[in-house]
Structures are given as C-alpha cells and as structure tokens.
Specification:
Helices cover about 35% and strands about 15% of the residues. By secondary structure, the chain is of the alpha/beta class. The strands form 4 sheets. Strands 3-2-4-5-7-6 form a 6-stranded parallel beta sheet, sandwiched between helices. A 5-stranded parallel beta sheet has the order 10-9-11-12-13. It has a 5-stranded parallel beta sheet with strand order 15-14-16-17-18, with helices on both faces. α3 packs parallel to α5 (about 85-95), α8 runs parallel beside α11 and α13 (about 370-380) packs across α19. It is globular and about 75 Å long. The model has no long low-confidence stretch (mean pLDDT about 95).
Length: about 550
Amino acid sequence: MEISNKPVVQKIIQECINHGIKHIVFSPGSRNAPFAISFDVHPDFETHVIHDERAAAFYALGMSQTLQQTVALCCTSGSAVLNYFPAISEAFYREQRLLILSADRPKRLINKGHGQTIMQHEVFGKHVKQSLSVEDSNGKMNHNSITDFFGKMQESPYRPMHLNIHLEEPLYGVSDIHIQKEKANKKEEIKEKVFSLTKDEIQSFGDQKILVLCGQGSTDYILKSALVDFNKNSNVVVLNENTSGISDRSFVNCIDRALNSIDAKGEKRFVPDILITIGGAIVSKRIKSFFIKHPPKRHIAINKSNIGIDLFLRLDDHYECKPTSFFELLNKKATLLNNKNFKATWNQLDYLVKDRIPSFFNKAQTNTDLEVFHALYHTLPEKCTLHLGNSAIVRYMQLFDPVPNVHYECNRGTSGIDGCTSTAVGGAIANPNAQHVFISGDVSFIYDSNALWIDPFPKNLKIIVLDNKGGGIFKIIDGSKSSDQLERYFEAKHGTDVKAIANSFGIQVYSGKKSKKIQDQIIDFFQDNKSQLLLLTTDSNENPKELERFFKHLNNA
C-alpha cells in the first residue's frame, strides 16, 4: 500500500497499530496530509472527517467514552490545534483516552512570520498526561521517544496525550510499504497489587456510620454487587447519581431531592462518621455544600486519580485501587456492628419524598422544563444511552430516579456546554446498534450546531431541545436570578430559530400536533422513524417558579 514516505509518520502508524488504535478523527488541512494519506489506505483504521476541530475533538471524546478505547485526532498546524482544547480538558478530568496528532511547521520556521504557525509544543500544558514534539529527521531518536510515548499512553490513570510532529515539505510523497502489527517484546507482566488493609484499619469501620457517594463513571457490575452487599448493613447508606451508572433500588438515587427535605435543625443526623467517595464528578452542589458545612470525621477517596479527590476540602485517606477491591475486602473481612440505623435515617426520608412526587404532577400540565423531564422519565426507550446537556439539563434529570436499563452520559469533567451535541454524535456513531437520545438546552445546542454538519449523521440518535430562549439555569441559581444584568449577561436571551438551524443541516424536526400533551409528543417522536429532533418550547418565566413549587411540595405535602 502507498503510505507517506516520511519515516516519522510510518513509525507513528506502526505504534497506533501495535496499541490497537482503530479510529482516527481528521479535520481537513495540508500540513497533516502525510497522515491522511497513510491512515486512509490502511485497512486497520477507520477514518472520520469532521471540518470543525472543536466538534471533531468532542466527537472523538464521545467515541472514546463509548468504546473505552483510545481515539486519535489529527489536524493541520496553527490555530486548528487550539480548537481541540475544550474537549481535551474535558477528557483530562474524565480520564478518557485521546491521542492528539498535531502536524506542525518545521521548528526553524516557527515565529518567523509563516502562516498557520504558532508555538504548538506543549500547547495543552498540564491538561494532557504527556506532550512530545518530534521532527522529520533524527530517525532513531524519534523512534525511541515515540515508542516510550505510546507505552506511557497505556498506563493508568488514562488521560489525553499530545504528539506534535514537525513536518518538512514536500508533504504528499508516498512509498509502497506494508505495515502490520509487530510481535510484542516479551515483558514480565505487571500484576496489579492486591489491595489490603491492616487488621486495625478493617476494624476501624466496625461501629461507624458510613456513607458511600458514587460519582460519574463508576459503572462496574461487580462493583455494584459489592456495594449492594455492603449497603445491607444498617450502618451504611449509598448515595448515587444517574451519571454513576450503578444505580440500585436500595440506594438513595436523587441526592438533591433528599437534601431539600432535611430540616436545618436535624442536619447532623445525616452526617456520616466516614464518607467514602468513588468515581468522578459529582453533579449535586447541595451535597458538596452539605459536607463542607458538616465535615465527616473521615473522608476516604478510592480511585487511581491524582487530582480532584479532595472534593470536600478534608481528605484523610486516598486508596489508589479499584473500588471493587476495597468493598469486596470489607464485605469479606470487616465486621460492622450495625449498632446505628444510619441507612434508615436516609432511606425513610428518600421514600417519604418519593411518595410525594405523583401528587405534584396530578394536576393541570404546565409548560415547563420540569414537566418535560417528568414526561421523559416515563417515556425513554429501554436500553438506550441518554446523553445529557450541562447546567439545568443534567440537574433536572437528577430529580428523578434512574430509569432501569438506561445508560447516562454527560460532560461533567469541566461541565461546559460547548461540545455536548458533538459528544453525543460520537457516542452514537461508535455504538450504531443502540438507540441514543440527547437532551439539550437551546443555548448549548446553538453553540455546538456544527455538530449537525457531521456526515454521515447517525440515524440512531434522537435529539430533544428545550427552547426557553436563554440559559434557564441562571433563573434558578442564587445571585444571578436577582441581578439586574440577568437577561443580557447571564441568561443570554436570544431570538435564534433552533428549527431553522436544524433544517439548514438537513436534520428533520418533528412536526406533530402541539396541542398534545408533552408526554404524548415525546412518545410520538420516539415512534417517528424519520424525525431526529424534537423542539419543546417552555416558559422561561414559569420554569423557576414551577421548580420552587416542586421543592416546597416535597417538603409540605
């Protein structure tokens, strides 16, 4: 096959094959031509061409989180690479695997006035696990450093890595070379160290009130089983969010809903002696404030991360192991005295609040965001992947129990709105045999509208946009909702036509009868094989009032 005649490009292709990288997301350009020529003809790779680099990077993130594999990005030189930064920062805090291959001008031309030339070396700073710049020449030195670089990519914790390649012209030369997977050098297998605790450490859990808080991406069926067993102790309660992926009926699955109903005078009854956190980001601001106000005696973080674990500003122990290993050990060796009915304290509150929900919606329907999410809770397709937009969207969904057999995804690493649609598109492309649903606010959808430019657009993705002509979250949170600058600077009111944007990219918008109830519109939309976007207009003034009424009802019904 005819691939680039540049040895450095051939070496990188070889390492991609060796390390099982299958998907390469390209954005068009000239400086990255040697890679486009080479990856396109090689049967071991599937290439994706996306014009907007920001959309391309979030698309790759969506693929990576779905496949749990490294996905490569490749772009031309200059400002193109900077457009990857939002997705790279998201992937960094989510511990997702991206390989950035940025083509660059020769070193001797940088900062000499040549076009599409910036200082690309280490441009992502601390937001990648490693950066490496290599040149067209210095073959042996390049080969050794590239080999080491790819080896580092396989080490936990996983994070994005940046390989910057200075390429000389001509760029389009080829050689007839066949590259296939090399036989791996025999290396001694590094076995994961068996997690252990001393006898005294195990006994220290015996008579303590224990709360386990599950963050994003904890998905592991063995872990869930171990947690369910651990949660059978009356001293233990498990708090969970939809985005964790390990919900169970015995867990408290809606944290804000429960915390809202705790009387201020009785808050301390809900504070554990030991707080154990697992997984990634926590959506609930209330639980963060709660444990900062009422710190537990001991906070244990369990993961292999080296950042973001001191969430409550009092970290006592960090066990760098799989949470499964930790809980299986405690289930096997710890004797919990069950002398405190701590679980009942939380569960009784949770059951009481949950029982009050139906009576709130047993009234005339309101044209609000809350009504939409209540309807979605009852209408989501079974076994779908649900992608949630940020800010208000993910928080509204957290007010309802996780829907069985629905997998929840959301960009909570940095919690930005900038690439939510592109991430959902990438996830749907990576998993074409499953139904994917994306729920977005209007501002987020408009902001990332170039995601609709991706071709082919996945037919297995349904999009629901809540259009309240602004960023509704700012009418909910304290501070901004009472500001004189609310509409212009925070809510960012707009008159943009979401339907027109979708139609301009060839996306068919559902045009059912608007007189139908919201739930009926959603049901019809999911049954319509042609339409891919449902636009629901909600009342921006009524939205915060309805949410306030909901929380008051849960307290007083």
